[in-house]
Protein backbone atom coordinates (compact mmCIF):
# COMPACT_ATOMS: atom_id res chain seq x y z
CA UNK A 1 0.00 0.00 0.00
CA UNK A 2 1.26 3.43 -0.78
CA UNK A 3 2.85 4.95 2.23
CA UNK A 4 4.96 2.06 3.33
CA UNK A 5 2.75 -0.82 4.37
CA UNK A 6 4.95 -3.84 4.94
CA UNK A 7 3.46 -6.84 3.15
CA UNK A 8 5.04 -10.29 3.03
CA UNK A 9 2.21 -12.25 1.50
CA UNK A 10 4.20 -13.92 -1.25
CA UNK A 11 2.51 -13.33 -4.58
CA UNK A 12 -0.60 -11.46 -3.59
CA UNK A 13 -2.44 -14.52 -2.29
CA UNK A 14 -5.42 -14.11 0.00
CA UNK A 15 -4.86 -14.39 3.73
CA UNK A 16 -6.09 -17.59 5.43
CA UNK A 17 -9.66 -17.53 6.65
CA UNK A 18 -13.24 -17.98 5.54
CA UNK A 19 -16.48 -16.06 5.59
CA UNK A 20 -17.80 -16.68 9.10
CA UNK A 21 -21.40 -16.21 10.22
CA UNK A 22 -20.06 -13.60 12.68
CA UNK A 23 -18.67 -11.45 9.83
CA UNK A 24 -21.74 -11.96 7.65
CA UNK A 25 -24.10 -10.82 10.41
CA UNK A 26 -21.85 -7.85 11.33
CA UNK A 27 -21.74 -6.75 7.68
CA UNK A 28 -25.53 -7.09 7.28
CA UNK A 29 -26.14 -4.97 10.41
CA UNK A 30 -23.56 -2.34 9.35
CA UNK A 31 -24.95 -2.22 5.81
CA UNK A 32 -28.34 -1.12 7.22
CA UNK A 33 -26.69 2.30 7.45
CA UNK A 34 -27.60 2.50 3.74
CA UNK A 35 -31.31 2.29 4.59
CA UNK A 36 -31.43 5.86 5.92
CA UNK A 37 -29.86 7.29 2.76
CA UNK A 38 -32.06 5.21 0.47
CA UNK A 39 -35.25 5.94 2.40
CA UNK A 40 -34.59 9.66 2.16
CA UNK A 41 -33.88 9.57 -1.59
CA UNK A 42 -37.13 7.68 -2.18
CA UNK A 43 -39.32 9.63 0.22
CA UNK A 44 -38.36 13.14 -0.93
CA UNK A 45 -39.58 12.83 -4.51
CA UNK A 46 -42.84 11.17 -3.46
CA UNK A 47 -43.69 13.70 -0.77
CA UNK A 48 -42.94 16.65 -3.05
CA UNK A 49 -45.48 15.29 -5.57
CA UNK A 50 -48.27 15.09 -2.92
CA UNK A 51 -50.71 17.99 -3.26
CA UNK A 52 -51.46 18.41 0.51
CA UNK A 53 -47.71 18.75 1.19
CA UNK A 54 -47.28 21.33 -1.58
CA UNK A 55 -50.39 23.27 -0.44
CA UNK A 56 -49.03 23.55 3.13
CA UNK A 57 -45.37 24.38 2.50
CA UNK A 58 -45.00 25.35 -1.18
CA UNK A 59 -48.33 26.91 -2.26
CA UNK A 60 -46.76 28.73 -5.22
CA UNK A 61 -45.59 25.40 -6.67
CA UNK A 62 -49.05 23.91 -6.13
CA UNK A 63 -50.68 26.87 -7.92
CA UNK A 64 -48.24 26.63 -10.82
CA UNK A 65 -48.90 22.88 -11.13
CA UNK A 66 -52.70 23.38 -11.13
CA UNK A 67 -52.39 26.16 -13.67
CA UNK A 68 -50.22 23.97 -15.92
CA UNK A 69 -52.82 21.20 -15.81
CA UNK A 70 -55.74 23.59 -16.46
CA UNK A 71 -54.10 25.45 -19.32
CA UNK A 72 -52.14 22.54 -20.81
CA UNK A 73 -49.06 24.75 -20.44
CA UNK A 74 -45.37 23.83 -20.34
CA UNK A 75 -45.01 20.53 -18.45
CA UNK A 76 -41.24 20.95 -18.10
CA UNK A 77 -41.50 23.98 -15.81
CA UNK A 78 -44.43 23.28 -13.52
CA UNK A 79 -42.30 22.15 -10.54
CA UNK A 80 -39.53 24.74 -10.97
CA UNK A 81 -39.08 26.30 -7.49
CA UNK A 82 -35.79 27.07 -5.72
CA UNK A 83 -37.49 26.73 -2.31
CA UNK A 84 -38.78 23.25 -3.19
CA UNK A 85 -35.35 22.11 -4.41
CA UNK A 86 -33.75 23.63 -1.29
CA UNK A 87 -36.01 21.34 0.78
CA UNK A 88 -34.68 18.31 -1.09
CA UNK A 89 -31.06 19.33 -1.38
CA UNK A 90 -30.39 20.96 2.04
CA UNK A 91 -29.77 17.43 3.33
CA UNK A 92 -26.79 17.00 1.01
CA UNK A 93 -25.05 20.20 2.09
CA UNK A 94 -25.40 19.10 5.73
CA UNK A 95 -24.05 15.63 4.85
CA UNK A 96 -21.09 17.23 3.07
CA UNK A 97 -20.06 19.22 6.16
CA UNK A 98 -20.82 16.34 8.56
CA UNK A 99 -18.59 13.89 6.67
CA UNK A 100 -15.49 15.90 7.65
CA UNK A 101 -16.38 15.70 11.35
CA UNK A 102 -17.27 12.04 10.88
CA UNK A 103 -13.71 11.36 9.69
CA UNK A 104 -12.35 12.33 13.11
CA UNK A 105 -14.99 10.34 15.00
CA UNK A 106 -14.41 7.30 12.78
CA UNK A 107 -10.65 7.42 13.37
CA UNK A 108 -10.61 8.29 17.09
CA UNK A 109 -13.68 6.46 18.45
CA UNK A 110 -14.06 3.69 15.86
CA UNK A 111 -16.37 3.02 12.94
CA UNK A 112 -19.35 1.77 14.99
CA UNK A 113 -19.74 4.98 17.03
CA UNK A 114 -19.81 7.04 13.85
CA UNK A 115 -22.68 4.83 12.63
CA UNK A 116 -24.46 5.17 15.98
CA UNK A 117 -24.16 8.97 15.91
CA UNK A 118 -25.52 9.03 12.37
CA UNK A 119 -28.53 6.90 13.33
CA UNK A 120 -29.44 9.01 16.38
CA UNK A 121 -29.15 12.33 14.50
CA UNK A 122 -31.25 10.98 11.63
CA UNK A 123 -33.87 9.84 14.17
CA UNK A 124 -34.20 13.38 15.59
CA UNK A 125 -34.45 14.82 12.07
CA UNK A 126 -37.24 12.36 11.20
CA UNK A 127 -39.22 13.43 14.29
CA UNK A 128 -38.85 17.12 13.37
CA UNK A 129 -39.96 16.52 9.77
CA UNK A 130 -42.96 14.43 10.77
CA UNK A 131 -44.15 17.18 13.14
CA UNK A 132 -43.17 20.13 10.88
CA UNK A 133 -45.34 23.23 11.18
CA UNK A 134 -43.51 25.46 8.69
CA UNK A 135 -40.74 25.45 6.07
CA UNK A 136 -38.04 26.41 8.64
CA UNK A 137 -38.87 23.38 10.81
CA UNK A 138 -38.96 21.22 7.69
CA UNK A 139 -35.54 22.32 6.46
CA UNK A 140 -34.01 22.09 9.99
CA UNK A 141 -35.18 18.48 10.09
CA UNK A 142 -33.60 17.91 6.68
CA UNK A 143 -30.29 19.30 7.92
CA UNK A 144 -30.29 16.82 10.84
CA UNK A 145 -31.11 14.01 8.42
CA UNK A 146 -28.15 15.17 6.35
CA UNK A 147 -25.77 15.02 9.32
CA UNK A 148 -26.95 11.45 9.94
CA UNK A 149 -26.37 10.50 6.30
CA UNK A 150 -22.88 12.11 6.35
CA UNK A 151 -21.81 10.03 9.36
CA UNK A 152 -23.29 6.77 8.06
CA UNK A 153 -21.94 7.13 4.51
CA UNK A 154 -18.49 7.97 5.84
CA UNK A 155 -18.19 4.97 8.18
CA UNK A 156 -20.24 2.09 6.72
CA UNK A 157 -18.30 1.43 3.46
CA UNK A 158 -14.96 1.58 5.34
CA UNK A 159 -16.29 -0.81 8.03
CA UNK A 160 -17.49 -3.31 5.42
CA UNK A 161 -14.21 -3.23 3.46
CA UNK A 162 -12.16 -3.76 6.64
CA UNK A 163 -14.28 -6.66 7.95
CA UNK A 164 -14.58 -8.60 4.69
CA UNK A 165 -12.08 -11.21 3.43
CA UNK A 166 -10.37 -9.81 0.28
CA UNK A 167 -11.93 -12.35 -2.09
CA UNK A 168 -15.47 -11.44 -0.91
CA UNK A 169 -14.96 -7.74 -0.23
CA UNK A 170 -16.99 -6.65 -3.25
CA UNK A 171 -19.99 -8.80 -2.37
CA UNK A 172 -20.12 -7.72 1.29
CA UNK A 173 -19.47 -4.04 0.56
CA UNK A 174 -22.28 -3.93 -1.99
CA UNK A 175 -24.59 -4.82 0.92
CA UNK A 176 -24.48 -1.04 1.60
CA UNK A 177 -25.80 -0.22 -1.88
CA UNK A 178 -28.37 -3.02 -1.59
CA UNK A 179 -29.70 -1.42 1.61
CA UNK A 180 -29.84 1.96 -0.17
CA UNK A 181 -31.98 0.40 -2.92
CA UNK A 182 -34.21 -1.36 -0.35
CA UNK A 183 -34.62 1.98 1.46
CA UNK A 184 -35.68 3.64 -1.82
CA UNK A 185 -38.16 0.83 -2.56
CA UNK A 186 -39.69 0.92 0.94
CA UNK A 187 -40.06 4.70 0.67
CA UNK A 188 -41.79 4.36 -2.71
CA UNK A 189 -44.23 1.77 -1.32
CA UNK A 190 -44.93 3.92 1.76
CA UNK A 191 -45.56 6.98 -0.42
CA UNK A 192 -47.95 4.93 -2.55
CA UNK A 193 -49.88 3.99 0.60
CA UNK A 194 -49.80 7.35 2.42
CA UNK A 195 -50.90 9.29 -0.68
CA UNK A 196 -54.26 7.53 -0.31
CA UNK A 197 -54.80 8.70 3.31
CA UNK A 198 -57.88 10.91 3.52
CA UNK A 199 -57.40 14.21 5.31
CA UNK A 200 -54.13 15.13 3.59
CA UNK A 201 -51.71 14.17 6.39
CA UNK A 202 -50.13 11.17 4.63
CA UNK A 203 -46.93 13.11 3.99
CA UNK A 204 -46.37 13.31 7.78
CA UNK A 205 -46.41 9.52 8.00
CA UNK A 206 -43.94 9.25 5.10
CA UNK A 207 -41.48 11.70 6.68
CA UNK A 208 -41.83 10.40 10.27
CA UNK A 209 -41.30 6.74 9.25
CA UNK A 210 -37.68 7.67 8.47
CA UNK A 211 -37.28 7.03 12.22
CA UNK A 212 -37.54 3.25 11.57
CA UNK A 213 -34.34 2.83 9.48
CA UNK A 214 -32.63 5.35 11.81
CA UNK A 215 -33.49 3.20 14.85
CA UNK A 216 -32.29 0.04 13.07
CA UNK A 217 -28.77 1.40 12.45
CA UNK A 218 -28.54 3.22 15.83
CA UNK A 219 -29.46 0.11 17.84
CA UNK A 220 -27.57 -2.23 15.50
CA UNK A 221 -24.38 -0.19 15.85
CA UNK A 222 -24.37 -0.78 19.64
CA UNK A 223 -23.95 -4.52 19.02
CA UNK A 224 -21.36 -4.28 16.24
CA UNK A 225 -17.77 -5.39 16.90
CA UNK A 226 -14.95 -2.98 16.07
CA UNK A 227 -12.83 -3.85 13.03
CA UNK A 228 -9.32 -5.24 13.72
CA UNK A 229 -7.88 -2.30 11.73
CA UNK A 230 -9.63 0.24 13.95
CA UNK A 231 -8.67 -1.57 17.19
CA UNK A 232 -4.99 -1.67 16.20
CA UNK A 233 -5.09 1.97 15.13
CA UNK A 234 -6.44 2.93 18.58
CA UNK A 235 -3.81 0.88 20.45
CA UNK A 236 -5.89 -2.21 21.41
CA UNK A 237 -3.52 -4.73 19.84
CA UNK A 238 -4.49 -7.80 21.92
CA UNK A 239 -8.20 -7.19 21.33
CA UNK A 240 -7.45 -6.69 17.62
CA UNK A 241 -5.71 -10.06 17.37
CA UNK A 242 -8.61 -11.83 19.11
CA UNK A 243 -11.07 -10.05 16.82
CA UNK A 244 -9.07 -10.95 13.70
CA UNK A 245 -9.12 -14.66 14.69
CA UNK A 246 -12.86 -14.41 15.19
CA UNK A 247 -13.66 -12.61 11.95
CA UNK A 248 -11.41 -14.89 9.86
CA UNK A 249 -12.54 -18.09 11.61
CA UNK A 250 -8.98 -19.36 12.04
CA UNK A 251 -6.04 -19.17 14.47
CA UNK A 252 -3.66 -18.66 11.54
CA UNK A 253 -3.78 -14.86 11.36
CA UNK A 254 -0.16 -13.93 12.10
CA UNK A 255 0.57 -12.89 8.52
CA UNK A 256 -2.45 -10.61 8.17
CA UNK A 257 -2.09 -9.33 11.74
CA UNK A 258 1.55 -8.32 11.22
CA UNK A 259 0.55 -6.49 8.01
CA UNK A 260 -2.20 -4.61 9.84
CA UNK A 261 0.19 -3.66 12.65
CA UNK A 262 2.78 -2.49 10.12
CA UNK A 263 0.11 -0.45 8.33
CA UNK A 264 -0.93 1.11 11.64
CA UNK A 265 2.67 1.94 12.61
CA UNK A 266 3.17 3.67 9.26
CA UNK A 267 -0.13 5.54 9.61
CA UNK A 268 0.89 6.89 13.02
CA UNK A 269 3.87 8.58 11.39
CA UNK A 270 1.34 10.63 9.41
CA UNK A 271 0.37 13.53 11.65
CA UNK A 272 -1.70 15.32 9.00
CA UNK A 273 -3.62 12.89 6.76
CA UNK A 274 -5.37 15.81 5.01
CA UNK A 275 -1.99 17.25 4.02
CA UNK A 276 -0.47 13.87 3.22
CA UNK A 277 -3.20 12.84 0.82
CA UNK A 278 -1.91 15.60 -1.48
CA UNK A 279 1.48 13.86 -1.87
CA UNK A 280 2.23 12.41 -5.34
CA UNK A 281 2.24 8.79 -4.08
CA UNK A 282 -1.44 9.14 -3.12
CA UNK A 283 -2.40 10.81 -6.42
CA UNK A 284 -4.31 7.78 -7.81
CA UNK A 285 -6.42 7.45 -4.64
CA UNK A 286 -7.09 11.21 -4.44
CA UNK A 287 -8.18 11.40 -8.08
CA UNK A 288 -10.50 8.38 -7.65
CA UNK A 289 -11.94 9.81 -4.40
CA UNK A 290 -12.97 12.95 -6.31
CA UNK A 291 -13.80 11.62 -9.77
CA UNK A 292 -15.75 8.42 -8.94
CA UNK A 293 -18.41 10.04 -6.69
CA UNK A 294 -18.66 12.99 -9.08
CA UNK A 295 -19.25 10.65 -12.02
CA UNK A 296 -21.70 8.57 -9.97
CA UNK A 297 -23.95 11.61 -9.63
CA UNK A 298 -23.40 12.74 -13.24
CA UNK A 299 -24.93 9.49 -14.49
CA UNK A 300 -28.18 11.32 -13.79
CA UNK A 301 -29.49 8.57 -11.49
CA UNK A 302 -30.64 10.86 -8.70
CA UNK A 303 -32.57 12.84 -11.26
CA UNK A 304 -34.54 9.66 -11.92
CA UNK A 305 -34.82 8.49 -8.27
CA UNK A 306 -35.49 11.86 -6.54
CA UNK A 307 -37.96 12.97 -9.06
CA UNK A 308 -39.32 9.68 -10.45
CA UNK A 309 -42.86 10.50 -9.27
CA UNK A 310 -42.51 14.10 -10.47
CA UNK A 311 -41.05 12.90 -13.78
CA UNK A 312 -43.85 10.39 -14.31
CA UNK A 313 -46.42 13.01 -13.35
CA UNK A 314 -44.85 15.27 -15.98
CA UNK A 315 -45.27 12.41 -18.48
CA UNK A 316 -48.98 12.66 -17.80
CA UNK A 317 -49.51 9.84 -15.32
CA UNK A 318 -52.08 10.45 -12.58
CA UNK A 319 -50.83 10.84 -8.98
CA UNK A 320 -51.26 7.15 -8.09
CA UNK A 321 -49.82 5.92 -11.36
CA UNK A 322 -46.77 8.16 -11.02
CA UNK A 323 -46.04 6.79 -7.54
CA UNK A 324 -46.61 3.23 -8.82
CA UNK A 325 -44.11 3.84 -11.63
CA UNK A 326 -41.57 4.89 -8.98
CA UNK A 327 -42.27 1.61 -7.14
CA UNK A 328 -41.53 -0.28 -10.37
CA UNK A 329 -38.17 1.47 -10.84
CA UNK A 330 -37.42 0.84 -7.15
CA UNK A 331 -38.00 -2.91 -7.59
CA UNK A 332 -35.74 -2.96 -10.65
CA UNK A 333 -33.07 -1.15 -8.60
CA UNK A 334 -33.13 -3.78 -5.83
CA UNK A 335 -33.05 -6.84 -8.10
CA UNK A 336 -30.35 -5.44 -10.38
CA UNK A 337 -28.16 -4.77 -7.32
CA UNK A 338 -28.26 -8.53 -6.62
CA UNK A 339 -26.70 -9.03 -10.07
CA UNK A 340 -23.77 -6.91 -8.90
CA UNK A 341 -23.47 -8.83 -5.61
CA UNK A 342 -23.21 -12.14 -7.49
CA UNK A 343 -20.82 -10.97 -10.22
CA UNK A 344 -18.54 -8.28 -8.73
CA UNK A 345 -15.91 -10.66 -7.29
CA UNK A 346 -16.05 -12.92 -10.35
CA UNK A 347 -16.18 -10.52 -13.29
CA UNK A 348 -14.43 -7.68 -11.46
CA UNK A 349 -15.15 -3.98 -11.16
CA UNK A 350 -14.06 -2.82 -14.62
CA UNK A 351 -16.36 -5.08 -16.65
CA UNK A 352 -19.42 -3.99 -14.64
CA UNK A 353 -18.47 -0.31 -15.00
CA UNK A 354 -18.02 -0.61 -18.77
CA UNK A 355 -21.14 -2.70 -19.45
CA UNK A 356 -23.31 -0.56 -17.17
CA UNK A 357 -22.05 2.62 -18.83
CA UNK A 358 -22.93 1.36 -22.33
CA UNK A 359 -26.43 0.30 -21.19
CA UNK A 360 -27.15 3.61 -19.45
CA UNK A 361 -26.00 5.62 -22.47
CA UNK A 362 -28.26 3.70 -24.86
CA UNK A 363 -31.27 4.15 -22.53
CA UNK A 364 -30.65 7.88 -22.04
CA UNK A 365 -30.56 8.44 -25.81
CA UNK A 366 -33.83 6.52 -26.24
CA UNK A 367 -35.63 8.22 -23.29
CA UNK A 368 -34.47 11.69 -24.36
CA UNK A 369 -35.60 11.01 -27.94
CA UNK A 370 -39.01 9.65 -26.88
CA UNK A 371 -39.74 12.58 -24.55
CA UNK A 372 -38.40 15.05 -27.14
CA UNK A 373 -40.55 13.57 -29.91
CA UNK A 374 -43.75 14.06 -27.86
CA UNK A 375 -43.15 17.19 -25.79
CA UNK A 376 -40.70 18.91 -28.15
CA UNK A 377 -39.51 22.27 -26.83
CA UNK A 378 -42.97 23.53 -26.00
CA UNK A 379 -43.52 21.00 -23.19
CA UNK A 380 -47.18 20.68 -24.18
CA UNK A 381 -48.49 17.25 -25.17
CA UNK A 382 -50.84 14.42 -24.34
CA UNK A 383 -48.91 11.18 -24.00
CA UNK A 384 -50.72 7.91 -24.89
CA UNK A 385 -50.49 5.20 -22.19
CA UNK A 386 -48.58 2.77 -24.43
CA UNK A 387 -46.04 5.46 -25.32
CA UNK A 388 -45.51 6.37 -21.65
CA UNK A 389 -45.09 2.65 -20.82
CA UNK A 390 -42.23 2.44 -23.32
CA UNK A 391 -40.55 5.45 -21.63
CA UNK A 392 -40.90 3.70 -18.24
CA UNK A 393 -39.46 0.47 -19.73
CA UNK A 394 -36.29 2.24 -20.89
CA UNK A 395 -36.00 4.16 -17.62
CA UNK A 396 -36.10 0.75 -15.85
CA UNK A 397 -33.35 -0.57 -18.16
CA UNK A 398 -31.32 2.55 -17.32
CA UNK A 399 -31.87 2.01 -13.56
CA UNK A 400 -30.78 -1.65 -13.93
CA UNK A 401 -27.57 -0.62 -15.71
CA UNK A 402 -26.79 1.83 -12.91
CA UNK A 403 -27.71 -0.63 -10.15
CA UNK A 404 -25.11 -3.20 -11.17
CA UNK A 405 -22.37 -0.70 -12.07
CA UNK A 406 -21.99 2.89 -10.87
CA UNK A 407 -24.46 2.44 -7.99
CA UNK A 408 -22.58 -0.11 -5.88
CA UNK A 409 -19.12 0.41 -7.37
CA UNK A 410 -19.22 4.15 -6.71
CA UNK A 411 -19.11 3.29 -2.99
CA UNK A 412 -17.07 0.05 -3.18
CA UNK A 413 -14.02 1.15 -5.18
CA UNK A 414 -13.16 4.31 -3.16
CA UNK A 415 -13.59 2.43 0.14
CA UNK A 416 -11.12 -0.31 -0.81
CA UNK A 417 -8.25 1.71 -2.29
CA UNK A 418 -7.11 3.95 0.60
CA UNK A 419 -4.10 3.02 2.76
CA UNK A 420 -4.84 3.14 6.49
CA UNK A 421 -2.94 6.37 7.09
CA UNK A 422 -5.26 8.38 4.81
CA UNK A 423 -8.37 6.13 4.91
CA UNK A 424 -10.63 8.35 7.03
CA UNK A 425 -9.58 11.50 5.17
CA UNK A 426 -9.97 9.78 1.80
CA UNK A 427 -13.44 8.43 2.59
CA UNK A 428 -14.50 11.89 3.81
CA UNK A 429 -13.43 13.38 0.49
CA UNK A 430 -15.36 10.62 -1.29
CA UNK A 431 -18.57 11.29 0.72
CA UNK A 432 -18.30 15.08 0.59
CA UNK A 433 -17.75 15.14 -3.20
CA UNK A 434 -20.70 12.76 -3.59
CA UNK A 435 -22.91 15.00 -1.45
CA UNK A 436 -21.72 18.21 -3.13
CA UNK A 437 -22.49 16.84 -6.59
CA UNK A 438 -25.83 15.47 -5.37
CA UNK A 439 -26.65 18.92 -3.93
CA UNK A 440 -25.70 20.74 -7.13
CA UNK A 441 -27.67 18.35 -9.34
CA UNK A 442 -30.70 18.33 -7.01
CA UNK A 443 -30.67 22.13 -6.89
CA UNK A 444 -30.14 22.52 -10.62
CA UNK A 445 -32.31 19.71 -12.03
CA UNK A 446 -35.74 21.38 -12.05
CA UNK A 447 -34.46 24.71 -13.47
CA UNK A 448 -32.41 22.70 -16.03
CA UNK A 449 -35.47 20.59 -16.95
CA UNK A 450 -37.40 23.84 -17.46
CA UNK A 451 -34.69 25.33 -19.72
CA UNK A 452 -32.96 22.34 -21.38
CA UNK A 453 -36.20 20.34 -21.82
CA UNK A 454 -35.54 16.80 -23.14
CA UNK A 455 -31.92 17.76 -24.00
CA UNK A 456 -31.20 17.15 -20.27
CA UNK A 457 -31.09 13.39 -20.89
CA UNK A 458 -28.47 13.88 -23.62
CA UNK A 459 -26.50 16.12 -21.24
CA UNK A 460 -26.19 13.28 -18.73
CA UNK A 461 -25.60 10.80 -21.58
CA UNK A 462 -22.54 12.80 -22.63
CA UNK A 463 -21.19 12.50 -19.08
CA UNK A 464 -21.73 8.73 -19.20
CA UNK A 465 -19.48 8.63 -22.29
CA UNK A 466 -16.78 10.59 -20.44
CA UNK A 467 -16.88 8.37 -17.33
CA UNK A 468 -16.87 5.12 -19.31
CA UNK A 469 -13.76 6.21 -21.24
CA UNK A 470 -12.14 7.28 -17.94
CA UNK A 471 -12.73 3.85 -16.39
CA UNK A 472 -11.39 2.09 -19.49
CA UNK A 473 -8.15 4.08 -19.39
CA UNK A 474 -7.45 4.91 -15.75
CA UNK A 475 -9.15 2.48 -13.34
CA UNK A 476 -7.20 -0.74 -12.71
CA UNK A 477 -8.96 -3.92 -11.58
CA UNK A 478 -9.07 -4.23 -7.78
CA UNK A 479 -10.98 -7.50 -7.27
CA UNK A 480 -9.48 -10.09 -4.88
CA UNK A 481 -6.61 -7.77 -3.87
CA UNK A 482 -6.00 -7.49 -0.09
CA UNK A 483 -6.31 -3.81 0.90
CA UNK A 484 -2.76 -3.90 2.29
CA UNK A 485 -1.39 -4.81 -1.20
CA UNK A 486 -3.34 -2.32 -3.30
CA UNK A 487 -0.25 -0.19 -3.98
CA UNK A 488 1.03 -2.86 -6.37
CA UNK A 489 -2.05 -2.46 -8.54
CA UNK A 490 -1.32 1.27 -8.90
CA UNK A 491 2.43 0.71 -9.26
CA UNK A 492 1.94 -1.62 -12.24
CA UNK A 493 -0.61 0.65 -13.96
CA UNK A 494 0.53 2.30 -17.23
CA UNK A 495 -0.30 5.82 -15.98
CA UNK A 496 -0.43 5.84 -12.16
CA UNK A 497 2.86 3.95 -11.77
CA UNK A 498 4.80 7.16 -12.50
CA UNK A 499 3.55 8.76 -9.23
CA UNK A 500 4.72 5.93 -6.95
CA UNK A 501 8.45 5.63 -6.30
CA UNK A 502 10.02 2.23 -5.58
CA UNK A 503 10.88 3.36 -2.03
CA UNK A 504 7.16 4.06 -1.40
CA UNK A 505 6.45 0.33 -1.82
CA UNK A 506 7.55 -1.69 1.22
CA UNK A 507 6.76 -5.29 0.30
CA UNK A 508 8.32 -8.74 0.25
CA UNK A 509 10.78 -9.18 -2.60
CA UNK A 510 8.72 -11.78 -4.47
CA UNK A 511 5.56 -9.69 -4.30
CA UNK A 512 7.37 -6.49 -5.23
CA UNK A 513 8.91 -8.17 -8.29
CA UNK A 514 5.54 -9.55 -9.41
CA UNK A 515 3.80 -6.22 -8.80
CA UNK A 516 6.43 -4.15 -10.63
CA UNK A 517 6.33 -6.51 -13.63
CA UNK A 518 2.55 -6.52 -13.63
CA UNK A 519 2.55 -10.34 -13.53
CA UNK A 520 1.31 -10.90 -9.98
CA UNK A 521 -2.14 -12.16 -9.12
CA UNK A 522 -3.25 -8.73 -8.20
CA UNK A 523 -6.60 -8.46 -9.84
CA UNK A 524 -5.20 -7.74 -13.29
CA UNK A 525 -4.09 -4.11 -13.05
CA UNK A 526 -4.59 -2.62 -16.43
Automatic annotation (TrEMBL):
It is a multi-pass membrane protein. GO terms for cellular component: membrane. It comes from the Eukaryota. InterPro entries: MFS_dom, MFS_STP/MST-like_plant, MFS_sugar_transport-like, MFS_trans_sf, STP/PLT_plant, Sugar/inositol_transpt, Sugar_transporter_CS. It holds the Pfam family Sugar_tr. Gene3D superfamilies: MFS general substrate transporter like domains (1.20.1250.20). GO terms for molecular function: monosaccharide transmembrane transporter activity; symporter activity. The chain crosses the membrane at residues 19-39, 83-106, 138-160, 172-190, 202-224, 286-310, 322-344, 356-375, 387-407, 454-475. Residues 26-479 form the Major facilitator superfamily (MFS) profile domain. The keyword Transport applies. Keywords: Membrane, Sugar transport, Symport, Transmembrane, Transmembrane helix, Transport. Belongs to the major facilitator superfamily. Sugar transporter (TC 2.A.1.1) family. This is Sugar transport protein 4-like. It comes from Panicum miliaceum (Proso millet).
Amino acid sequence: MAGGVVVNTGGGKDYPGKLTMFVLLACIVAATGGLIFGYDIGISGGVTSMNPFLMKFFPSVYRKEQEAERNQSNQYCKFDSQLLTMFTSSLYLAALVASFFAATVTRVAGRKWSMFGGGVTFLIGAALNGAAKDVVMLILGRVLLGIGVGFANQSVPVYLSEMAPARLRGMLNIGFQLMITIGILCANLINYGTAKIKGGWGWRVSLALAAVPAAIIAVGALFLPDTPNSLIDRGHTDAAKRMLKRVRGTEDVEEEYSDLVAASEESKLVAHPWRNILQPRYRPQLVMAIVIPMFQQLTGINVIMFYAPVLFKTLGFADDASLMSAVITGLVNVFATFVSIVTVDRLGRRKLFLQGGAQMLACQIVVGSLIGAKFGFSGVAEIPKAYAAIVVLFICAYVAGFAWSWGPLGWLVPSEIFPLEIRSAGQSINVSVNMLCTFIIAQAFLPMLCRFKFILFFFFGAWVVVMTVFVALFLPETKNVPIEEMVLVWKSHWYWGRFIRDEDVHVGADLEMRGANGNGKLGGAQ
